[in-house]
């Protein structure tokens, strides 16, 4: 799905710079787009075991980042996911300034960044909310490429708002913001994707003049209508086994440089879950967390898993480095295979999984029965930011596994 940005919690070890340390307490960080739209988040600096730690808050989520280095008054922060880094200058005890840099399939994306000590609001609260917008909203995103249907799930307490947007291919993870009078602002950052949403609250059932921006330049408009029974279009991202096929046949290299095939002995007579993913994909991060936990608890039941990664480039070392972050962060014990095919390659399916119709979205999940035949394919993923929808996803996943095992 479109790349999503979330405000998580980042733990950063900071040393003394020119005799100074960063102040403990609340900070406000801002990614500064050239169009003036600010993608903001708050973080705390605390002392943990004698070291300063950044804790960036994004609704209910927290993310630790430990890969930090210093050179003079410069601070380099490598995020634990994605090809993402902050290059900052410590201006004084109460300010940081520099760049957020993120790798992509083409050139790096670069956004100016600034953080100021003592700013407690993500976005300032200036006026009482005109309406409470909690609930389910049928949403339409529009751009030059056409329209996309989504569902906004929002929770407003006072003037604070949290929520996410669900699409046919996944969700926008944890978003957080405020309502001032008739104006909504929300944002999210996960180290690889940065999003900002705003809209006018026309009345209790309509949001208008919506703006969605991502990264340094991407922009869409959106509108929403409150609808407790709103549903998403079916089959827009569907993927199937091609006529006359029922088994997959692939062999790719894992992160240790070893060839792994679906025909290997470890997969025979097992229920196999095949994760189609990429290290650049935010929903893949949530899915990897879920699958890793599930595998640890259930691998002795006759279950195997394997991830097929489609990365930004065909370079093995670059892909390996990015995927290691996923493997280490979530303690992934099942093989992660590098397909060697770029995620944006229009022939990615034909080159890697020709038995399937085109891969439409990341992540997608293929369920293989004990007989080696494909039994079901799920596209998209509703992660923990979607609340009850994540609970429903987990129940359905368990139901499919139980059915295949029996």
From TrEMBL:
One family name in Pfam for this protein: Redoxin
Source organism: Pinibacter soli
Residues of the signal peptide: none
Record-linked InterPro entries: Redoxin, Thioredoxin-like_sf, Thioredoxin_domain, Thioredoxin_ResA/DsbE_sf
Name this protein carries in UniProt: TlpA disulfide reductase family protein
Start and end residues of each Thioredoxin domain: 241-406
PANTHER family listed in its UniProt record: PROTEIN DIPZ, THIOL:DISULFIDE INTERCHANGE PROTEIN DSBE
């Amino acid at each position: 799905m479109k790349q999503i940005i979330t405000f998580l919690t980042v733990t950063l070890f900071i040393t003394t710079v020119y005799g100074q340390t960063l102040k403990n307490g609340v900070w406000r960080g801002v990614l500064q787009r050239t169009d003036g739209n600010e993608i903001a988040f708050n973080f705390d600096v605390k002392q943990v075991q004698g070291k300063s730690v950044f804790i960036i808050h994004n609704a209910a989520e927290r993310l630790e980042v430990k890969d930090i280095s210093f050179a003079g008054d410069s601070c380099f922060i490598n995020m634990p996911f994605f090809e993402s880094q902050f290059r900052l200058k410590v201006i004084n005890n109460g300010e940081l300034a520099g760049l957020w840099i993120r790798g992509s399939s083409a050139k790096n994306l670069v956004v100016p960044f600034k953080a100021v000590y003592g700013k407690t609001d993500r976005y300032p609260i200036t006026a009482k909310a005109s309406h409470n917008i909690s609930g389910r909203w049928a949403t339409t995103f529009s751009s030059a490429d056409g329209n996309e249907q989504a569902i906004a799930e929002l929770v407003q307490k006072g003037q604070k708002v949290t929520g996410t947007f669900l699409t046919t291919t996944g969700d926008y993870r944890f978003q957080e913001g405020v309502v001032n009078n008739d104006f909504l602002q929300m944002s999210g950052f996960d180290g690889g994707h940065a999003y900002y949403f705003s809209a006018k609250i026309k009345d209790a059932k309509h949001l208008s003049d919506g703006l969605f921006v991502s990264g340094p330049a991407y922009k869409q408009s959106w509108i929403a209508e409150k609808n407790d029974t709103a549903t998403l279009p079916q089959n827009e991202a569907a993927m199937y086994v091609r006529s006359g096929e029922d088994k997959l046949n692939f062999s790719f290299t894992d992160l240790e440089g070893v060839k792994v095939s679906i025909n290997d002995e470890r997969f025979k007579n097992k229920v196999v879950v095949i994760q189609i993913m990429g290290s650049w994909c935010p929903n893949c991060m949530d899915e990897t967390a879920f699958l890793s936990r599930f595998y640890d608890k259930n691998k002795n039941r006759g279950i195997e898993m394997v991830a097929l990664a489609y990365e930004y480039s065909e370079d093995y070392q670059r892909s390996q480095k990015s995927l290691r972050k996923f493997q280490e962060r979530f303690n992934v014990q099942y093989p992660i295979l590098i397909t060697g095919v770029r995620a944006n390659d229009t022939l990615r399916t034909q080159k890697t999984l020709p038995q399937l119709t085109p891969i439409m979205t990341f992540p997608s999940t293929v369920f293989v029965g004990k007989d080696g035949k494909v039994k079901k394919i799920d596209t998209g993923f509703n992660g923990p930011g979607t609340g009850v929808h994540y609970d429903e996803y987990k129940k359905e996943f368990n139901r499919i596994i139980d059915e295949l095992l029996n």
